[in-house]
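Working notes for the structural subgroup meeting. M.R. asked for a predicted model of this chain before we commit to crystallization trials. I am recording the input and output together here so anyone reviewing the notebook later can reproduce the run.

Input as submitted:
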Amino acid sequence: MEYTFGSALLLNIPLVLAEYKCCILLTFALTKKTLQGKRVCFMFIPYSLLIIIPASLFFVQSLFENVIFVIIVSYLETAGWTIALKVSGRETWERSLVTGAMAVFLYGVLDELGGFFLQNNFNLKIPRELLLYMVSTMAAILVSGKLLLFCCRL
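Returned structure, recorded in token form:
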């Protein structure tokens, strides 16, 4: 299976949606504040475009082999979540940046912990393995986010 920019872009949408939901959970766990529903839903569009477009381009060009491009996407996630918090949470820029950076950091840790349970690597050129990768990644992100939220409420 050969990936184009369009196919990579479409495949990244559910992953970014899972990440966005996880960051909402992590923000609540960190601040004990709920984000305003309409505003947080509206901010998904610019947040996802900020991440999906460069990440899809990097993936198609096989640039993720170089760690600098992984770092660039992490900075874009932090910037996007900071802006989403500023708009939807009506916090100061400083609080939005600190909370956004911490939520994205925790999300990254949870995402990497999901790989701990994998027994082998996925070949993303095989459609069946791509589907398994997508489902397992989204499930691991959301389950670990809810588990962390549960632990913070204790």
